[in-house]
Specification:
mainly alpha
Length: about 250
């Protein structure tokens, strides 16, 4: 265990948490009106209807997979009859599908944002950086999923990354466990921490207050007036027959 290991896996995670929590509080206090995704459906909806569900449902499965893989010990899954091989197979299948859906979805959303003028002009520098880090995190996650399915002690994150992650909550970082993990898992972890540090300062902050119904909400429909008589003038009353009806 080196000094670099101590800084990366013993100090940096807590720095990230301070930035995440402090940044979120600061954003809520001083930028309440900016606490939004800045919806752009009015400018373009075709690509949004494809990319947004792919990304949101894909990322939801990815988050659930991370929670299970990092927080639930291997002994617990073995106790309910799930073998290690079976765990990695289902993690590879579900994680791979969810990761691909998330990557395709974010790719469509980035393409839409880049090619739709008003949407691109509404994109901040922080959001542009966030997209780069987010795509890197997804690609790194897919890589680790593929490596984990191949087996081998070096790529078994449940014996290295998971114990380290759980140890952070009791303020006793298991630095050695993380230090012996593969390079791919280390890169994925560092990118993940960078993403969470950026989180409060980008449009991702809306995820902290988005209700469950957000995922299933109907799209906004904009209607224009068509047919019928032209709009009444200001002095005409609803239901009146015009000036002669008021005599």
């Amino acid at each position: 265990m080196t000094l670099l290991d101590v800084m990366l896996w013993g100090v940096l995670p807590y720095v990230m948490v301070v930035v995440l929590v402090g940044g979120t509080i600061w954003r809520y206090r001083y930028d309440k009106f900016g606490w939004t995704t800045r919806s752009s459906e009015l400018y373009e909806s075709r690509l949004l209807r494809i990319g947004s569900p792919l990304f949101h449902f894909g990322i939801l499965v990815v988050v659930i997979g991370h929670v299970i893989g990092l927080l639930i010990p291997e002994s617990w899954t073995s106790a309910i009859g799930l073998t290690e091989q079976g765990y990695h197979v289902q993690a590879f299948v579900l994680g791979g599908i969810a990761g691909i859906c998330t990557l395709v979805g974010i790719g469509i959303l980035i393409y839409r944002r880049r090619t739709t003028g008003p949407v691109f002009r509404a994109t901040t520098r922080n959001d542009k950086l966030m997209y780069v880090v987010l795509v890197a995190a997804i690609v790194a996650g897919l890589t680790t999923t593929l490596l984990g399915a191949g087996g081998g002690e070096e790529h078994n994150y449940r014996d290295s990354v998971s114990p380290w992650f759980r140890s952070l909550f009791v303020l006793q970082p298991d630095i050695e466990s993380m230090a012996r993990s593969s390079l791919a898992f280390k890169i994925h972890t560092l990118i993940g921490m960078a993403l969470f540090a950026l989180w409060p300062f980008t449009r991702l902050v809306h995820a902290f207050t988005a209700p469950i119904g957000y995922l299933f909400r109907p799209y906004i429909v904009y209607r224009t007036r068509s047919g019928g008589r032209p709009p009444r003038r200001g002095w005409e009353q609803v239901g009146s027959g015009g000036p002669s009806a008021r005599r």
